[in-house]
Amino acid sequence: MLDGFPSNGSQAKESGAILMTAQEPKQYSSESDRWYDPITQKSVNDCLSEKGLPKRVTLREARRENYIPSVTTILHNLSKPGLERWKVLQYLGVAHRSKDLHWTEEEWIKEVIRVADQEMDVAKDRGQDIHGKIDRWLEAGMPEPQCAHTKAARTALDRLGCAEYPMEIEKTFAVQCGDVWVAGKCDLHSADQRIIVDWKSSKSPCDGTEKLGWDEHIIQLASYSMALFGKFVPCYNVFVSTSVDGAFEIVGWNHADMERGWSMYCHAYHLWCLAKNFVPSRKLSQTAQSS
Q: Does 132 fall in a domain?
């Protein structure tokens, strides 16, 4: 395994997380909000409505049951320069391809937004498909890779020196670290080797020509490290290309990055609690008490 933390300069130095203005708390959750039960340590994104049908957990229900927001939910309060730049480029790309449409300005704008959103959904589905293939390959015991993406994953794990060690896949957790909660699902980690690996897909060729690692990645891995190990351990994002078969890039974070990421998470957590008027506590959820 790579010794200790990546050295300084192993990732780009730009800092991009900017706190957004907190708005009036709403009683519903966005489609990308995720919640975890601190008792079961499992995701509780869906619940039953009064009519007995599955529905998304609302903020009101999360308050009542003392569910814990995931790290990605907390990060909704931060701007994400890498993601926002990618979105802008998608809209501009569709706009360029549609410049000859003889529509009114309003119709043209709506069509550009519709097509770009559709293409971004396709890209998201492609990324989830790659992630799923890698997870299923890992769960099968890492047999001989049969596709470019699992071959990339195998090579990345070999390069990190952890392919031969026991690794836990997709571990869910909800842990209180001091006065903040950390909840989420860790792609891959080893308790023995003390390492965390997080898979990301990217349209980039993953050849070192584009910046891939951003503050939201540091924040996520630093908080996962604190929740799973109680301290900072070596953490790596492995970006798998969706445009070049078999291409990947490893981005590692050093100890200073992790300290900064953890500090940013703590501040973002408290901002989220203020914005939502909800501070999760240690008490058992009503669901857990009644079970």
A: no
